[in-house]
């Protein structure tokens, strides 16, 4: 008589098989998730290296004898869930910087190719295209994980003829469209560094207002209200603007300078981290909130430095290391996201560039 499995044995065997398959499926799923997470972290680290290597390269050639524009803009996060609504991490930063640097620079798309040893460089989160080109999609209105960090490089090319002393850069009659093309698409300026310094102040504030997407005055900086030409705009439909593309998935871009006098990095929205902004914020307030239009910033060394708590520096003394917001080092803080959104909230990084060398 041949022996066979009983029904009970079959049930037990199938149960054991189901348990084994369940464990195998879980292990497989965890392995796949871990692999995807590893790829996401590798992508973020690749972005981190691309940004920091470019910053190091540019700031290695920083011309402290040249002009520098920087402004700091903060905005409350919509999704912040912490207990202290005024904590530093409750705000996103949309800072911008422009400076001159020495190096070996070459245009990317220009024909013919232009090369030079001095360039005016800008870093900022970029505007995006919109249905109305006169009102670009500014980074504050974009999804955090879709924001793009841009870098423009305008190589200085000496003019071959005598420039107009009242308008040496030739921007005096620019329309909004021409301003946008110049800021985002152009890769060179027909001017020397000395020529830039000699641009009449009335003309210079117009130029810097476009560079920084702020209203630059001789005693204040204000965020743009209806000025449509400011900032860097990247449009995939315009390949000539893509040379400014540095990195996608940069949720915020923060710039701070070391202050020897205050022994801290400035500016900060809430330096002491308490629940009150009024007692110490470097940002300009309206009541208990950040001012919607007036923002801290500086134009070194010929313009103002403006901070909160009525700390105004109408003119700077030209000592780079003692200038508030600059100092001996710059600290860059940015939040990076992977393209698939696997790392929720992204990862925050800090990178310090020492300038006193």
Secondary-structure map:
Blueprint: H1 7-60, E1 68-71, E2 74-76, E3 91-93, E4 96-106, E5 115-125, E6 148-157, H2 176-184, E7 188-190, H3 193-197, H4 201-212, E8 214-216, E9 221-223, E10 245-248, E11 250-259, E12 264-266, E13 285-286, E14 289-290, E15 297-300, E16 305-306, E17 312-313, E18 329-336, E19 347-354
Parallel strand pairs: 6-7
Antiparallel strand pairs: 1-4, 1-15, 2-3, 4-5, 5-6, 6-10, 8-9, 11-12, 11-18, 13-14, 15-16, 16-17, 18-19
Separation, N- and C-terminal Cα atoms: 94 Å
Radius of gyration: 26 Å
Residue runs with pLDDT of under 50 for 5 or more positions: none
H/E topology pattern: HEEEEEEHEHHEEEEEEEEEEEE
* Shape verdict: elongated
Structural class: alpha+beta
Report the major sheet: 9 strands, mixed
Number of H- or I-type helical stretches:
4
Domain count: the total is 1
How many strands appear in the DSSP assignment?
A: 19
Report on this model:
- The chain has one domain (31-354).
- Helix 2 links the parallel strand 6 and strand 7.
- It has helices spanning 7-60, 176-184, 193-197, 201-212, and strands at 68-71, 74-76, 91-93, 96-106, 115-125, 148-157, 188-190, 214-216, 221-223, 245-248, 250-259, 264-266, 285-286, 289-290, 297-300, 305-306, 312-313, 329-336, 347-354.
- The mean pLDDT is 86.
- The protein is built from 4 helices and 19 strands.
- The relative contact order is 0.15.
- The strands form 5 sheets. Strands 1, 4, 5, 6, 7, 10, 15, 16 and 17 form a 9-stranded mixed sheet that branches.
- The chain is of the alpha+beta class and 357 residues long.
């Amino acid at each position: 008589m041949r022996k066979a499995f009983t029904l009970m044995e079959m049930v037990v065997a199938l149960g054991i098989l189901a348990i084994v398959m369940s464990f195998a499926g879980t292990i497989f799923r965890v392995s796949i998730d871990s692999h995807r997470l590893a790829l996401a972290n590798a992508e973020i680290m690749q972005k981190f290296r691309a940004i920091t290597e470019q910053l190091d390269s540019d700031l290695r050639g920083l011309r402290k004898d040249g002009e520098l524009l920087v402004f700091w803009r903060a905005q409350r996060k919509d999704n912040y869930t912490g207990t202290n609504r005024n904590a530093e991490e409750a705000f996103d930063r949309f800072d911008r910087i422009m400076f001159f640097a020495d190096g070996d620079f070459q245009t990317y798309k220009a024909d013919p190719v232009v090369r030079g040893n001095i360039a005016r460089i800008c870093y900022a989160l970029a505007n995006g295209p919109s249905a109305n080109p006169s009102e670009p999609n500014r980074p504050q209105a974009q999804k955090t994980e879709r924001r793009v960090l841009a870098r423009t490089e305008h190589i200085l090319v000496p003019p071959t003829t005598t420039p107009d002393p009242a308008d040496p850069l030739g921007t005096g009659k620019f329309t909004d469209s021409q301003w946008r093309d110049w800021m985002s698409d152009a890769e060179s300026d027909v001017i020397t560094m000395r020529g830039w310094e000699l641009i009449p102040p009335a003309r210079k504030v117009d130029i810097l207002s476009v560079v920084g997407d702020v209203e630059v005055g001789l005693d204040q900086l204000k965020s743009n209200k209806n000025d449509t030409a400011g900032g860097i705009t990247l449009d995939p439909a315009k390949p000539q603007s893509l040379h400014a593309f540095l990195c996608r998935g940069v949720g915020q871009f923060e710039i701070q300078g070391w202050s020897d006098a205050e022994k801290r990095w400035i500016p900060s929205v809430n330096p002491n981290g308490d629940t009150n902004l009024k007692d110490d914020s470097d940002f300009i307030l309206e009541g208990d909130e950040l001012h919607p239009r007036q923002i801290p910033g500086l134009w070194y060394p010929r313009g103002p430095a403006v901070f909160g708590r009525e700390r105004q520096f109408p003119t700077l003394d030209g000592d780079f290391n003692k200038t508030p917001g600059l100092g001996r080092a710059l600290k860059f803080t940015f939040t990076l996201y992977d393209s698939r959104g696997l790392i929720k909230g992204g990862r925050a990084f800090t990178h310090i560039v020492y300038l006193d060398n």
